[in-house]
Structures are given as structure tokens and as C-alpha cells.
Amino acid sequence: MKKIAALFLDETDRADWEATMSEVAELVCLTVDGNLASTLDALLQSGTDSEPGVIVISAKLYPAVYPELVVRLRALCPGAEFLVISRDGCAPPLRPLLADRIRHLTISSTAEQPGDERLPEVLNRLARRRPWDTTSCLKAGTTVHSFELSCSDDKERVIAKLERVLEGQGEEMELLRQKASLLADELLENAMYGAPRADRGTPMFTKGAKREMLPQEIIVFSFGFDGEVLALDLTDNWGSLEPDQVLEYLALNADGFQNADECGGRGLFIIWRFLDQFHVSVQPGRRTAVGGRLHLASTLDPTAPRGFHIIKEEIAA
Amino acid sequence: MITIPTSNDNSAACDFFALEGTIDAHSEALLMAIPARVKHPVVRFDFTNAGRINSMGVALLLRCFKEIRSKAEIRLEGLSQMHAMLFKMTGVFLLATPVERKKEAAA
């Protein structure tokens, strides 16, 4: 596993994350303390054998205090994956992250809450370059239900099946069912109407129109519920969603609502906000997987920003 | 989705529309016809029997409300927790105000 470096604003910032990151192996922690140049030198010296595979950046440091930080780090460590970490309530704006092509953001509470991401797991996955999937979000042994769609009418059938799997009494279960059916709706609509693109990138189908899947088209919706966590995943074989486009859509919708009804990517924005954790994995021209997990007892406010993990998978030659 | 228009309630002249079922791309014709039917300075939309509202449904509601807002105040009633979260995060509440439903007057 490649080494992980973490950069903090100062000792207070570092201490805030210490317990959260105590289980992370191969971790080098650095505090800037007002001297970025010497911190970057120390980062280089710490990696005499190899550059860090993952660089964790505290949101107290970037983008507000050192907006140029990622550009400078990329020049030093061109192969590194970058993860910005933020405490709940002080999430960074998305525009600078989009400009710097940051594709991983984790927002967590000081005291772990249901729905929070576990940072050691995230770092382990990033260091090993392993994308998330339904199974990875659930307790071992949980049944994963998968459906390959043959026509647009399958959407309501699949959503009904999902609601049956989430049967149960109580307000929490009712809310989970409602969130799940909306998430499934958005995921399926994106795959059926957003993903299929003609040669010039124009959508091939109109939203809401009845359609059959094309002979070579594969759209698979998977989900599982382990009693606490619901994991959802939608995979299509178009691979038409660009990683930067995902963050562009999130930023566009998060920026404000002056032109709210003209916003593109509102479906992705809704998926991002209603999930506790949002994962996108793209093999351009081959495959897009969008999904994540949602905890039954999630206390995360859907109207507040979320973390994300957007991965562009390398295609073996 | 169906809408039931009435021309007034007990307290003031208003238009009233009750939305039912899923609100999505299939709701376009109904929602786009509503602005032309608004005749009063206040419009009430009842979501008590509305179900899932997806991003296309939100887009259509925004378009509908934008057109109405130039001539009437929009009030939203019977919102579920899901509807309220969705409307807050997508800017619907910038065009329309959520209100508590008035208790039915005793007969």
C-alpha cells in the first residue's frame, strides 16, 4: 500500500483529527504552521523512497487559507490522489475543488454519527485504488439484489421491489423508504435518459418517454439492506459521465437557485444530498457506476453539503 | 397526478390545486396548464396526497411557480418531511412559502 500524507493548518487542527486517523497505517502527518514552503520540503523528504499515494488536506488549510496548495502539491506529487477532509458545518465551497480537480471530500462530525464515513476505510480504499460498490458498503453476508433493465417500465417495478425489501414500521423506516425510492428513481432516470448519448454527445432519449434498452445496452440496478445501512448502485455501459462533469453539476446546483429551473444535473445533486456517502466511478466510454450508502438512523441533513468520491478508473491496455 | 381547482376558501379569495401521486416528467401537461388557471392573488397547492417528486417534477414545479409568482402569492400545504427537504435544497421555497394547513372549520 502506498504511503499517505496528511497536511493540517496547525497543531490544533491536527489534534482535532488525531483520534479519527489513529488507525491509519503508513501515515505521515505535517502541520503548516504558517510556513508552507518548509512543509512541502518536509513532505518531499518524507517520501525519499516513493511519493505519497494519497494526500489528505484539512479544509482548515485549503481552499480558504492556501488556495494554491493543490496546484503546488500536484507539481510535487503528480501521481497522488487528493482527499479534502472537513468537519460538519464548515464544508469547503465546491468551485475551488472543481477547479483543482479534487475528486474526494469527506465531511465528518467530531463524534462519529450514523452515516459518517470512517476515514481509515476511505484512505485504505484510496491507497489501494479500489472503487466502492454495493457489497463494500454493507455488512458481510448481506443479500444484494440486482436487476438488469429491459425497458423503461421496469423502473416502477424495481422501485416497488426496493420498497418491499425495506418493509418495516416506524418513522425512520418510512423516511428511509421514501429516500430510497427517490434515489432509485433518479439513478434509473439518469441511466435510461442521461447516459445514452449520440456521437455528438446529444441525449438519445427524452425524459419520461417509453423506451426499450438497446441490444448492446446494459443497465443494472443493485441494492442491499443490512438492517442499518442501505447501499445502492446503478451501473450502465455508456461511460458517458465525465468525472469533472459530476462536480460541475453539484457545484452548479449548490451555488444558488437564480436559474434553478434551468440547472442541469439536478438528479445527481439530489442523489448526492440524500445519500450519506456518494460514489461515482467512471471508465470513459465503457462504464459508469453511481451509488452510495444511506444509514437508517442517519442524522445528516440533506440540505447540507456532503462528501463525495469520484473515481476515473484506468482501463488496462 | 391530478389537480382539483377551486376558486376560494373560507377566508379569502384564492385558487386551490391539490396534487396527487408521483410528480415527474409525466406531470408536464397538467403542471404547465395551471398558471393560466390562476385568477386570484393567492394560490394554494396541497401536497397531502402527492407522492414521490423527482428532479424532473421539481423542474416542472419551478417552471410553474415562476410563471404564477408574477401575478400571485404561492402557498404550499400538506408537505411531507421529504417534500420539505427536497424543496429546500432545490430552491422551490424561494418561489413558494410552506404554510401550516388551517384546521377545518367546525360544521
TrEMBL record, chain A:
Lineage top rank: taxon: Bacteria
Protein name: ATP-binding protein
Automatic annotation (TrEMBL), chain B:
Gene3D superfamilies, per the entry: STAS domain
InterPro entries per record: STAS_dom, STAS_dom_sf
Protein name: STAS domain-containing protein
Lineage start: Bacteria, Pseudomonadati, Thermodesulfobacteriota, Desulfuromonadia, Geobacterales
STAS domain span: 17-95
